[in-house]
Fold each of these.
Amino acid sequence: MLAVAIIVGILFVWTLLAHRLARWSISAPIAMMAAGIALTSGSHPPLHFDLDTHTFEHVVEVILALLLFVDAIEVPGGVLGREKALLTRLLAGALPLTLFAAFLTALAFFPDQPGWVLAILATVVVPLDLAPIYAVIRDSRIPSRLRDVLNVEGGLKDGIISPVYLLCIAAYTESHGKGAHYADAVLEAVGAASWAVATGLAVGCTAGWLMRQSWSHRWTEPSALRLGVLSVPLAAYTLSGALGGNGFVASFVAGVCFAPAARQLPESAVEMTADLATLLTIALWFLFGQIVNDQFWDGLHLAVILYALIAISLVRMVPVLLSLAGSGLKLTDKLFLGWFGPRGVTSIVFGSLAVTELPPSSGDFVSGIMVMTVMMSIVLHGLSSEPIGRFYGRARKAGTPAPTR
């Protein structure tokens, strides 16, 4: 209990200084991770959590399910229509290229690893999490068009990558079986995705219709609606898992289907689910600090550091620049969208699952690179948020702001 009290105390101190720290580009993930590293380091650390692999895995899975649901709900409907061309370039063009670039880079750095392990690694280091750059999404100095596109991409990208990750896991499992029938792996992944989509559709549409009807007929009240909204992603996640589907995909699809109803409910209806997801995520960053210590207690490998650095920079930036060629955006705006692809909770979840799904050596390999990638992303993307905001602010004052169209 003392450990929990310390985490809560650190979180409270951060809330008191959030604005001041933001001016120094110190986000909540940076602050909590640094605190976790400091308080769990050494041979006799002040704090140390006994992180059972399966327990930790289930906790982070629930956090990701909540985040995917909230992300899907909060995607601005108008942006999908206004920025369809840009989003198509990023999701249909840049995303596949990014996965391929991550795989090729891994192949160059780690040629001794099996191909499917490197494919799994690519799906682990590519997902986007906007938590480390939350200040950027709310920074009015940056053109709203760029922030909206980045926000929508972040909301949709993880839901798209989840089935690809499952396919790679299934293919690896098949490749180490007696027959190595990849068709079975594809069928297994398609089956899991199908159950997930069906479950998400059923839960999201049904819950949305019922809650909209209940609210319009004044059968319920805002406080009850908040609990009802929280139950939707949890129901989609657990029911999909029971049916053999993927809970992440189900939660995301449920959010997409629930979104139209959410716009007709009080704004506060979704707030509790969003706040709970944020609170759990912040606590996760503290635990991630201990994971960093545990992972690199025996030292760091140069290849891991270099791969992680390339994964959070060139692996995304080059495909984004190629996909946005001819889009009409200025080079600075293309670089903005290319640079801000921070990694976070989704990578942690996928990396944790890899530990249980892969042999110990392969699982530890993927997990170690995931930890380095997420840690570097939190620091570099977080610290660059305020300077880039100032750059756009100066450009606006000089009368040469980035175009809004």
Amino acid sequence: MDSFQTTWAPLLYLVAGILFILALRGLSSPATSRAGNRNGMIGMAIAVGTTLALVWSQLDLQTWGLILGGVAIGGTIGAIIARKIPMTDMPQLVAAFHSLVGLAAVLVAAAALYSPVSFGISGIAGIKAASLIELGLGSAIGALTFTGSLIAFAKLNGNMSGSPIMLPARHLLNIALAVGIVVLMVILIQSNGSAQWAFWGVTVLALILGITLIIPIGGADMPVVVSMLNSYSGWAAAALGFTLGNFALIITGALVGSSGAILSYIM
């Protein structure tokens, strides 16, 4: 098991990362999009399989049941949605999926905060400062992505007006929310993770910031917003990848973050 953890697991994660790069390259052209999609699926299967192989001896039967049950339920729902949603509704589907990525980042960060020993991030005085920065950033970006993607979905899907919604003094409000997030993160770091209320404060302020940043943007610009939020979800995943020591998350998050940022700039 030690040999697999130190040698084979990083190698398999690297292979998964290469496949993700090939997937992005393939998706750049209609002629190679099927091959690109296939590479992405294989890469994800390798990444998930490697992660499960790393922890299989540490988990009891009940935990395995929860994991496999979650995979089965999520996979079934994803397959049904993918088959039923028409291509014209892809932008709002992508926005909805991005919201789930953001929510997952928040939940993983919370789990690491409440069980640092399980994640290997505890130090003598508490949780390591570097890990707290990663947790705070991951949760903040994830929360912002969650609510921002929900607003983008609602505007694209016609559940709310596509017209810009201008809040009074919205720029000052956004600045105040951003400053509040920074202050609470400093408190969280200085407390070595014991001020858990500060973590949840960061999360709540980021949830609000996701709303206030997106609602002033019109529906016609939502594709750009979706691409930007895609980038945010990637950086959230990369931040948590450092906390978890997971090379696949770091590589994939960096790929998604950078490609989303470039696409937003081009659009």
Amino acid sequence: MSAITYSDEDKEKGYTQDVVGDVDHTAPNDSVIADRYARYGKLGTVMQRILASGVEARGVERVPENERETKNMWNNLLMWWSVNCVLTTIPIGVLAQEFYTLTLPHAIAVIFCFGALGAVCTAFIATLGPQTGLRTMIITRFSSGYIGCTIYSILNILTQLGFSVTAVILGGQTLASINPGTLPLVVGIIIVALCSLIPCFVGYNLVHVYERYAWIVTFIVMLFLWGLGGHAGFDTSAQKPLEDTGRSLSADVLSFGGIIFGSFTGWAPVAADYNCRLPADTSSTRVFLLTFFGLFIPITFVEILGAALMTITDPAYVDSFGSGSTGGLLSQVLSPWKGGGKFILVLLAFSVVANNIPNTYSAGISMQALGRPFALVPRFFWVFLAFVIYTVAGVAGREHFSEILSNFLSILSYWTAFFIVIVAEEHFIFRRKNGPLGGYNLDDWDSPSRLPVGVAGIVAGCCGVAGAVVGMSEVWYTGPLGAKAGAMFGADLGFELAAAFAAVSYPPLRWLEIRLTGSCAREARDIFDCAIVVV
């Protein structure tokens, strides 16, 4: 244990702040992390052997500078391209016609506008990875405290597991549709889930190796789908007789926009997990731009494809969608190629593996971020547990894919909206170079007594929840403001109001928290720190 000292260069970057007291400021390397499991006797020996085989030891621990990598900057683009240029992105575009009866031009406009906003938000979160060397959920400790991080981690676990459920169901549906009656849907779901588990179990490096190249094949397949769909006949006015008008149309646009926003910001709670090994002096502008385009280009490209395929009016295509959902529609689109089309369906089915990898990997990280007792359990164990949970849930919900997707994505946009706002305001207002706190003391990441109490972040998050409740419009509930914004069924203003309520409440609450939790509160916070250690 030694007093923290920082170089002038560090202070100029705004990464640190002056603190009082001693703290272990050495970020543990991988070998130190692996040695922790020796305390578990024979079980610890098994764990150490697993880690010695090449499985990643590091979980939520901060990555020290001497273990940062100086290459693979383009992973910020290629990874997100691979993750989103996949089968699971197509049904999001399908929802424009299936649930909201939007014409193709209106669907495209919504995807572009709300997608750009969501990509900006997620790209910002990604810039914090190299700056801090921390996983995304751990970064929230600097705004919402230790307990706030636990709350966000629970939300993120549910989010990533929800994404995984939709991924394995759709992958299984597609495999089952290749030769109907041959492969049971349950078996297809299990196959896709197992393929997702392997790289996540091994860890960070294998995840990046896979995602660096996975996009190539699927991008070519998407081009094939565009061509075959165009040959079948896109009808941009097909939904015109069914499309709502006036306030009802506005409500459809806002509700579908919330889903699009959620499809982008769903990656915000994990965005820093995949570049925290880059050097601290990595250009934030480059990280932002590469992440933005790595999200925006493939997601809009594939979501618009999904919306376009729904404009095909050929009865065979309509019947295929009615009987087999998105998987059945894609099978019909590829039917002119016969055996070749079935091979492409196989590629599409397994493309969801690239999408499901970050869900699985980050679910394990978020389970460790729940608190120190959870962090003591190896990362690979939590990854395996996540795999079991979403596989079982996927099998149980396999007949309700569209309903799960629609409700899940719209609710997802609510909490990610206020999460992003709170982290951004902490970063730009309170942690800026000349701000009230002057930067981040990164070595405090696991010291509750030196982190914010978190009351401001938690209360602002509750305000965000209140905004979502009064503005949401779901099948099972419509908030008072959401009801007034639309016609018969209201309009979903959930994520907009969640962000607005959090944005207005957090700065004054945080300023008050800083004023009230200075040195006079140090003893009480040290007691809390000791309690966490005991637990």
Amino acid sequence: MKSKGFTFIDVMVGTALVLIVFLGIFGAYQLALKVVSQSKARITATALSNQKIEMVRNLAYDDVG
């Protein structure tokens, strides 16, 4: 028997595969957002610490305590 279209099983398997791919992409996207957020926090902390280091470097030797 020749069929001229997709069966219900074909559609379900295709839908499941597409769903699995999209879930993987969504998970990677969420991970990327988390990494970007952590990187922003680290950059801010580094900038603040560099600012304090430069402030201490500019002090006279006797003022460093």
